[in-house]
Specification:
The structure is a single chain. The protein is of the alpha+beta class. Helix content is 37%, strand content 15%. The protein is built from four helices and four strands, in the order αβαβαββα. It has a two-stranded parallel ribbon with strand order 1-2. Strands 3-4 form a two-stranded antiparallel ribbon. β1, α2 and β2 form a beta-alpha-beta unit. The protein is globular.
Length: 111
């Protein structure tokens, strides 16, 4: 699905833009079972299966990270969701769904 498509290019995006100060951080909210947080083994399998070597992959929690109201955070309406945070730690832009071309376009605008 789209989450795995995004995972497949995570390291590539990291490699292409890291010399400009870019870091792609993946936060896994689900493991193999939708709605259930990933286990350490599932996170490691994600890293290995997507050939991720230097792009950070973190554990997430739907309970702590999802806020459909958008009051206490970014309203996540679909998966994957991308949040682009600039060097000043300000939200530059966000979107749901995966498109490598669109991601590159946003990264280049932000940098």
């Amino acid at each position: 699905g789209p989450c795995h498509a995004g995972g497949a290019v995570a390291q590539k995006l990291q490699d292409d833009y890291e010399d400009k100060g870019f870091t792609l951080v993946t936060v896994l909210l689900d493991g193999y079972t939708p709605g259930v947080e990933p286990t350490e083994e599932e996170l490691e399998e994600w890293v290995v299966s997507h050939n991720i070597t230097s792009s950070p992959v973190l554990f997430g929690s739907r309970e702590k990270m999802l806020d459909n109201s958008g009051i206490n955070g970014y309203s996540i309406s679909g998966f994957p969701t991308y949040l682009y945070i600039d060097r000043d730690m300000t939200l530059f832009q966000g979107h749901s769904g995966f498109s490598e071309d669109y991601s590159r376009q946003i990264i280049e605008q932000m940098l």
